[in-house]
Design a protein that fits this description.
With 426 residues, this protein is an alpha/beta fold. The chain contains 15 helices and 12 strands. Bound molecules: glutamic acid.
Amino acid sequence: MNIAESHDTRLSLHEQAVRQFHEAADIMDLNPDFRVILEHPKNEVIVNFPVRMDSGEYRSFRGYRIQHNNLLGPYKGGMRFSPHVDLDEVKALATWMTWKSALCDIPFGGGKGGIAFDPRDHSRTELERIVRRFTHALGANIGPDHDIPAPDLGSNAQSMVWMMDTFANSTASANRQSVKGVVTGKPIESGGSLGREKATGQGVLFAFQHWCDETNTDLAGLRVAIQGFGNVGSNVGRIFEVYGATVVAVADHTGAVINNDGLSAFDLADHVVDTGGVAGFAGATEASNDDFWAADVDVLVPAALENQITMDNVDSIQAKLIIEAANGPTTPAAELRFLENGGEVLPDILVNAGGVVVSYFEWLQNKSSQPWALDVVDNKLRETLLAASDRTVLAKGNYGCTRRQAAYVVALDKLERVYDQRGIFP
Ligand code: GLU
């Protein structure tokens, strides 16, 4: 096994995140005092809480909220509901949220949480009790100016409104109206923002368009493979299709489908809503996972879980560009190999920041009790992501580093300047 391969399997997700951080900190010579602060999360909250199942029996669940950093603003990040959730995973995801907010210049810190369970195993009434009891267990660890959850894998707008309502009901009645912003990604009627649901996919498009301009590439006609067809993947597919790209291959937990002439992302999204996955889609042929990774495409968009592009499949990838719509989909060793093979990676903290950026817009709308029109949201998201992309390209040139390292350098530079100004207490 060579060094790259041993790194690929040896590091946990949080260790990967810390390694990426140190690499960038070395490149920009980050003040060692701030390095020790940013290396680890500030707070790690773990709650075990009982919930009554529909059968009448009690079950205990384990939930997490990791608060990585709040120098620039309240801790901010999603709540993941998945059997894979554990302390290491949420620590990595919380760390990445700090860099995402700093890179995009929004006044938030980084946090992440979740519950280790499969929401698909539960009725709606059980889900509601699980989410409400989790929110109650977190208590004052969350708050509209303290720590603001949002949807992530396995959670959605309905989970967020249950969280908001539970939090509001634990708040003195005179202050209830002011706590709407305790979560973002809510349904529109309950204080959500237009454009939030598709925001991550929309942001992926803006970051991709920026890369197309930079590299003189025509987006129309590019062939695309997408891994994961939930909220993020299905919006990426539909939005890319509107801009003339051809979606050729899609994979999810139910299997993979390929149509070399192009499939309809809109029809596939309907099929996934009806059946729960891409398997059985009439507009394409079922394929193996290996065929999916080796699909004849220009662009690969991982939009599911972390650690999907590894030393095991990286050499089979035909795409020349990986757009990381998911968090942490490429292992450090696989990224290195892909770059050596002549490929390019648009890094997660830049590419998928559209979700948290529009969460910020939702939070502003809640604070001012004033809804924004969809085109205002989309235009501001576009401006924000193009500016973050500009900063990343500039740093890449200045430091002669990879695009991921450049995005980190921009984020760390911002945090360093604020720590420099504020110092630490006492
Ligand atoms: N869960 C999303 C992410 O990983 C959105 C977070 C948010 O809106 O706070 O970026």
